[in-house]
Amino acid sequence: MLMQTYEARLDGLRKELGKRGLDGFVIPISDEHMSEYVGSYAQRLKWLTGFGGSAGSAVVLKDRAAMFTDGRYTVQVREQVDGKLYDYEDVPATSPAKWIAEAAPEGATIGYDAWLHGIEWAESAEKLFAKKGLKLVPVDGNPIDAIWDDQPEPSAAEAAPHDEALAGRSSADKRAEVADWLKREGYDATVITALDSVAWLLNMRGKDVDNTPVALSYVLAHADGTAELFIAPEKVTPALAQHLGNAVTVRPRDQFEASLADLEGKTVAVDTNHAVAGIFHALEAGGAKVVRDGDPTIMPKAIKTPAEHQGHRDAQARDGVAVSRFLRWLGIEAPKGGVDELAAAAKLREFREDCGILRDASFDTISAAAGHAALPHYKVDEDSNIPIPPSSIYLVDSGGQYDDGTTDITRTVWIGPGEPSAEMVERNTRVLKGHIQLAMQYFPDQTTGGALDALARMHLWQGGVDYGHGTGHGVGSYLSVHEGPQRISKPGGAFPGTETPLSEGMILSNEPGYYKPGEYGIRIENLVLVVEAPIASEGKYLGFETLTFVPLDRTLVDKGLLTEAEIGWWNRYHEQVEAILGPQMEGEDFDWLKEQCAPL
């Protein structure tokens, strides 16, 4: 019998835990690869609680349960999760492990799925629990899977080769680089667990996860340049098998855990940031010597090839037309009062699909009207959907996945009739000044993203305001829209990567913002490529080449607050917008573009 209510599901989980002799259980949003986005089969937290955010976790004890989310989801978690069933707990003020240590009775046994949690979390929780007389144990099979009767199966979609001409490097070349690293470090093999790392290494793409073109799989890469790919057999087409070649052995994905026992006596490198605890347990039980070291594909993946640079430019040129056509449509229809957030997101998807080669969205579109725009990670659904009010600000953050690139763009626009308030214009202009400041900046090679972050905030700070998210994240090439290790954010923040030096060839977002709770939000986002700076310098200097070309809303700009240099940037940017998009547009769309790109 299907459990229709969240109360019934919580009760069912408690009964299952009781059968297993467990006093509690920790439920993260995760899969066996610690992915940011997970397949429907792995949406255990959503099934149990109703929470649909992309980051969070829950703890279920015999008589208490709690939801743990950070400030991005303070509103959403209260809308989606029943407060009579779960306490709301804020991270990082607390954490699941800290909460359990206080709430669980002495002697309690707490279960966790070692194939969904990182090893460092498991080890730190185990130490904390030991001080409190608690025991942390890995479960044999996830208890939620035991009660989730209609749990979807993992995707059976076929995987496919990724064109070497678009990648700019062969898989053999990439594997040789990994092999050189293994030999240099004295390792026999490394486990590649992050799905986008597997995809990059083998020049392979898939359809197993929404928004990210990856296939559920693992790789064991060896120091002799060979590799073993663990993937469901039905995913491997003759074309993929031919592409992989003789140096890559294909084995069933369900043999991966057992295969780790074959590495007895071998020195195996594993990345604690991307590999679940179960992999460490299996390697150690099999007699391998496990060394904790970084995934050797992360940095080469982040530094794009010239072919990937051009692919991004080509993808952005198509994507810019779609977003521009959408903004023109929105400017006509939304002031009439008949467009809601879901309809706007669907229309934007329609414009992207018109190009004929869209593979997927790169993330769920943030289509945010009025007060919803003040929620940086708002996700519209049937319950939250509202009409876009005339005479208001609307924010849309969206992206597309194309064979040659991954896009991510945010535009904030005024929906007429009437004029925006002076405060809205002033705040938007400060956000714009920060965006331009970062876009124009030159900096020494190996400067960190953390060192640049204040440039995007300085004009907001001078106005006594700030924003609570990072300024920029790395972006993949027809891969993950959020790709590490580089990041532009306040040093010492909650996210890793701010101390990673920026290198020529990296792609990042430039997205400062401002959010007034309950009223409106502003964000301006373009993607940028790190390039050598066109200046005479002592030593190597870098700068940013803007990749995203879509008009910015001049209704929300106070020209009097801009310097001559900033006005110059605005006009040069819009000249490029018209030059890149104009040849692809015609009729009234082209007329609209010309009007939007006129000098400020």
UniProtKB/TrEMBL annotation:
Residues 540-600 form the Peptidase M24 C-terminal domain. It is an enzyme of class 3 (hydrolase). One of its GO terms (molecular function) is aminopeptidase activity. Residues 160-171 have a biased composition (Basic and acidic residues). Residues 312-532 form the Peptidase M24 domain. The keyword Transport does not apply. Gene3D superfamilies: Creatinase/methionine aminopeptidase superfamily, Creatinase/prolidase N-terminal domain. Keywords: Aminopeptidase, Hydrolase, Metal-binding, Protease. Its EC number is 3.4.11.-. It comes from the Bacteria. Residues 150-171 are annotated as: Disordered. Residues 9-141 form the Creatinase N-terminal domain. CDD domains: APP. Pfam families: Creatinase_N, Creatinase_N_2, Peptidase_M24, Peptidase_M24_C. Belongs to the peptidase M24B family. This is Aminopeptidase P family protein.
